[in-house]
Amino acid sequence: MIANALSGNSDKPWNLSHCDDTDVMIAALSDMPYEIDIKGAGTAMRFLTALLSSRSDSGEHVITGTERMKHRPIAVLVDALRRLGASIDYVAEEGFPPLRIRGRQLEGGHIDIAGNVSSQFISALLLVGPAMTQGLTLHLTGNIISRPYIELTICTMKEFGADVEWVDGATIEVKPKLYEHVPFVIENDWTASSYWYEILALMAKSHGGDAATETSRVVLPGLMDSSRQGDSAVRYIFSMLGVKTTFAAKVQLSPNTVTLTAQRRVLPRLDFDFINQPDLAQTVVVATALLDIPFRFTGLQTLRIKETDRIAALKKEMEKLGYILDDRDEGTLIWDGSRCQPDENPVIDTYEDHRMAMAFAPAAIMFPGLRINDPGVVSKSYPSFWHDLKAAGFTIENS
Fold first, then answer.
1. Could you tell me what percentage of the chain is helix, strand and coil, using 3-state DSSP and rounding each to the nearest 5?
2. Residue 264 to residue 362: CA distance in whole angstroms
3. Would you please indicate which residues are annotated as catalytic (active-site) residues?
4. pTM score, two decimals?
């Protein structure tokens, strides 16, 4: 949507998702009010900060969000944009939204930014690079995390006609070449598919891998085998947890359709580095523990600054189900099989985090009657989640 807006195209891309994150972006790009409230959409906060800073015709705006958003750091992006000539002031606390932004033409040039920060900071800078008079050379220092998200950004930019390339393993060059008007179809979301993988994995466990479970299936449209989404790795992770992925060519369905089937599989332990797929972590943590598979998951450092501190939230909520997680090493979460007495009637708190609700909902397979507080948080990325669960046979009641 940012690339499309910078191309000057008034038509929206096709297959936009119907969720809070998309809605706030549509509203901002369509109306451009003086105060833009992006609610809890971290992606919109970062991408719009870059967009508003780099458009001389955008005027002055204040961009703000939820109380949690006002405590999510943004100084790395603001400092980088300022070095490129942007006019940005903090309205309240230094280093955090809200921001007051005065749009102007940015010259661009060479800039260094840490590679171990949120990839959304990097993507935000890349997306506005073509509009800078000198283009942008972005050098990523140190460890580069979430590289697939950066690759996905570059791929999207190229589809809109941008001249952008990796110069070496840590440097990206964006030439000053404006985006073009192109029709663009958005692929469906592999991250959202992860909850269905979790459901089938837990079904196999709860039914002991019997024939009824193995004939169960979930069909998901609009997912590509050749996807550049980093979270498409979900199919490889869950193949180790007993879920088979079959693409359309083998099941006589429409193109870009995936069929998931469950099969009983016993894995003694799972070690995985989520450095490139941090948004899958909650789903895999819940699924793996409930499958009684000890794990050591690394690359989780960005989970501290998501919609909530996801590591702290996972520890607290998993304890309600009787699982004791260890986070003594930063960016690492371990379950060695340690158990405690679960709550008699567990109630899962969601901390204004859509992924907490969706990752824990399938746990109802092992904990019938599980309650989820503030279920409406799923509207951020997957508003039809509860409806889809009902369609699949779950019984869901408001309590």
1. 40, 20, 45
2. 17
3. 279
4. 0.82
